[in-house]
């Protein structure tokens, strides 16, 4: 005859989510993720109206990200392009200028390591390397037709703010949470 063991009734082990050691780990993980989302920042090209500080445009920018401003010179009425990039300190750096006609408001001499050359009938000043934390620009009302060139997009500044108004260009730091919420503005 077979010997039968008496059955011992015990509590079943707690499911994984109820184990006491899991809750502190889960809490620390969630808090760490929230702190990272709030503290980590992403650089963004920001255009604000000077009058009231309202953001009219934002776009994520990487280190060495590039953008250009084009406009028609008010006196000799030829196009000018100013090219910028973002440095590791999250500053805008004026890198070069391209223009067709020399005249008032165009640099008259080279400084430091700047170079001048002609290419395809246009004059270029390169290696300017002027660091800018921010700059202000008054949007042209009649002739200037200011445009922002960013990642193969052409954005007329007159669509972002009224012609004649002043706007401020700056690199702002958006926390990752704001970026993930999709608060970047393109246009109004």
From TrEMBL:
Q: Which domain of life is it from?
A: Bacteria
Concerning Pfam families, the annotation shows:
DUF1850
Q: Where are the transmembrane segments?
A: 20-39
Provide this UniProt record's keywords sorted from A to Z: Membrane, Transmembrane, Transmembrane helix
Query: Does the record bear Transmembrane helix in its keywords?
Result: yes
What's the protein called, per UniProt?
Answer: DUF1850 domain-containing protein
The record lists the organism as Paenibacillus sedimenti
């Amino acid at each position: 005859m077979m010997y039968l063991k008496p059955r011992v009734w015990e509590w079943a082990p707690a499911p994984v989510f109820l184990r006491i050691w899991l809750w502190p780990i889960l809490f620390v993980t969630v808090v760490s993720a929230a702190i990272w989302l709030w503290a980590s920042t992403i650089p963004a090209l920001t255009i604000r109206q000077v009058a009231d500080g309202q953001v009219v445009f934002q776009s994520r920018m990487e280190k060495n990200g590039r953008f250009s401003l084009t406009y028609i010179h008010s006196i000799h009425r030829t196009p000018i392009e100013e090219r910028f990039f973002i440095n590791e300190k999250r500053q805008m750096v004026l890198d070069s200028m391209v223009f067709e006609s020399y005249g008032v408001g165009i640099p008259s001499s080279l400084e430091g390591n700047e170079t001048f050359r002609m290419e395809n009938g246009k004059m270029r000043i390169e290696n300017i390397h002027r660091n800018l934390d921010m700059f202000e620009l008054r949007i042209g009302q009649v002739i200037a037709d200011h445009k922002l060139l960013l990642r193969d997009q052409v954005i007329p500044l007159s669509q972002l703010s009224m012609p004649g108004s002043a706007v401020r260009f700056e690199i702002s730091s958006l926390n990752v949470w704001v970026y993930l919420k999709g608060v970047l503005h393109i246009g109004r």
